[in-house]
């Protein structure tokens, strides 16, 4: 079983949070800050994560400590295991109605521990929403407030005892009258806010509260005074002596006089500034691209769906641009990925600068950008924006001592004429972009229906691909995986190759995407799985030490309804034990994460190992990985390529290694090409590697020779 995560993944933030501008902070600082936040949360808060039905699949040590249940006793249960019977059914019904609608729920809950004792927790439940806006899991963040609840009870019983407790409490406790004038202030106000006690008492509470939040407090006090509420919990910002603001979570209770009329109010304020900053940071990292700080695909699609809904109700138009940098692969290959990243950041700046303030630009990944343009009145307006982007791109950049002028291709689709839904609109813009690139790039095009007609070349290649699958023109090369500490062979990755009898070798980068698009990846993937398992079993039968074979599984295959049954059949037919098969999936599975979790868990239940390929290319990985049933993270080669030269790449690799150690997940670095890279990886604690430093991909015959050499190197008796 995978070791439980040490920290939660947080979602929506309150609008009361101060803006946290991380735009220009270096990646290294962001990573350190994120690491510190995770550690702080795990040390101070009680964390649990449930699926959409409320079943627990992660708890931290603080949760186990306060509930007195072990992690094994909690996993798979729902929170009814902790039900104290104190709250009514209506209480939980309202809670589920709130989080089920995608809203954050906050409240205080009394739970029963395993030994029968009761404890109170201040609870925040954050729903995580899929691309359709539906919750697929919930993160609960709790803090033990048993002492505070006990204190409140004591307050009712004895004013003297109340005063003693409040004066030694870390919470800010006060009594105010209906006008907000202080009747009592606990010493913690001075400690936390920095104001003199006399200064605080001589001014009403409203003076210290942020002007945007004053109405919130005023409204709540009025409702309590009219007895329309028995108590209230709100959040507002309060000013310190340094003219900064702290976020406060405040419980307000009325105090009655002898005539049962509201006389004063008791306020218990808790400083939640650090929690707000943590939520803000993690939310930002989960929904933004780390290189450019632009929104990522998830956030872009969320906004696009919202704007389409508005446009439908108002009968207005909007447009989507799909922007691709021309010949960007050549730039990466010629000047390296560090310069490539520099070009991407400049491209992001130029696109954003060319647009209106109401437009939204996002980076989907690689050199692909998308733009959402609201309130479009005519095509001419769009053309002006497109030409402005192209004009800005004509300004040269200095790279490696040379001037380079970037260019881009742009495809445009308009709502509602080109598509009525978000996915359809983006697909049409992509089709228009492909049309521009076929015409020579550095231009733009509006989507037209005729663009969807396939080119002759693609038709021919698709036909040849179908024939190749029938005739089994493919073969598999095997690239070794190495234990870095022992310099020992531990497995191999199966890589499909196509050597056409007339066209020669066809790059996987060319035929794999075509196979994905046409659905031919299903029979091709099945062939690779069967042949790879057969070959691995054959080597085992010859007496070689059993090794794990890694085989890629595409997002299209994962979404295939019978994929688990098919893999089980192949294992049975080839007689390969499931423990010697590892399936590598890419981050594209995050698009439909609910289905991915189900399929991956079923595969792990068979005994098959699961690996995430190209890991680390987006913070979405950090956000999602703790919820996926995986055994191995494969660090993307782009970070290994310059790890011995680039501190940012090394920092990201170190963050992945730290995350994996926390979660109990194995890590392997791909693309290890030289000794300096290997030295840094070993120093950082990476235990496994793969790349040309150890071996290029080998044919089955050459890999068997490699196996024999490995046997000789370990001193084991050579196999006949």
TrEMBL record:
The keyword Mitochondrion does not apply. Residues 316-449 form the GGDEF domain. Residues 33-77, 158-228 form the PAS domain. Pfam families: EAL (PF00563), GGDEF (PF00990), PAS (PF00989), PAS_9 (PF13426). Residues 105-157, 232-284 form the PAC domain. Residues 141-168 form a coiled coil. Residues 458-711 form the EAL domain. It comes from the Bacteria. CDD domains: EAL, GGDEF, PAS. SUPFAM superfamilies: EAL domain-like, Nucleotide cyclase, PYP-like sensor domain (PAS domain). Keywords: Coiled coil. This is Diguanylate cyclase/phosphodiesterase. It comes from Bacillus badius.
